[in-house]
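Your task:
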Amino acid sequence: MAMVAAKCTMCGSSIKVDDTKEKGICEHCGTEFITEKVINVTNITNVDKSTNIYYGETTDAKVKKDLEKIYKSLVAAGFDLDNLKVKEDDLDIELCQNAYTLAKGVIKKDPTNYSAWKSIVIMYYASCFAGNCEWIYGVEKFEKYTDIVQRLLKDISTAKKIAPDDEESKFLDTLRDNIKINYYQTNLKSASTGKNVAERVTYLEKPEKKKKLHKVLIWLGAYVILMGLLLLVNNVANLKLSFIPENMTGENATTMVIMLIACGLILIGVYVGRIISIKNTDKKIANVESENKKRFTEKSNEIEQEIASAKTVKEYEALADKYGVPRL
């Protein structure tokens, strides 16, 4: 019996298998495997060191050619493959889509081709960090950015299962953790300026300034008072003004004068009262807004400090749970 180094195609763990047996069981995840397949995943020696393209066990010349085209297209499109980022502000969308289509084609022919999966992972990863995902929406029906992140994590998991060695597996783990942290950082920063500052003081409702109503009140009040004064002058000076009824004299006139002036003063009083009420409410609103701003800033700073102190994915997940950010 010869024990050979291999890699489980389900969980990606390094295992030792008996190459004289057709099948075996992964000691890590309990999955049954075909010995030849798990050995082939590990024994990938056909690697172009200059481009780090893993050709795998494929003998298909077209697949090899397509993998080389993918590498060249990614570089030409603006990807810095060494540092896993976008070189230019604007990626060449057509080249990105071409590289993606080629990679998907290789995967269709050879589902375990690591380089094809890795190419897709790198394209998604670099685009997400650069905030330049336009080309992705052109090849996949994603509705929002979170969908892209979810797909990236899924593809990283798939690539990890067929990674040719521990170094590549660790590389994928780093990408997975980085994209999760980036996602939580972005969403937690949004939380620090949104619903998670909900304990702010409720805003006071500002009375509506009904300009037309105010004009009616002040002019009607002035008119009623003026009529009262005219009636008073007419009665005292015995002017006998034509528009004032003859019976509006003596005690009748006095009573009417008092009523008209009183009504006018009431109308003007209502107007003045509304203006004073609005001004007082404006002051209260200004005070409440100032307090809100202070509390808002304090809460935002508190969340930002927590974000800055988080280092691991687990710490970010704990903050996500605390502030209502959906987990990945």
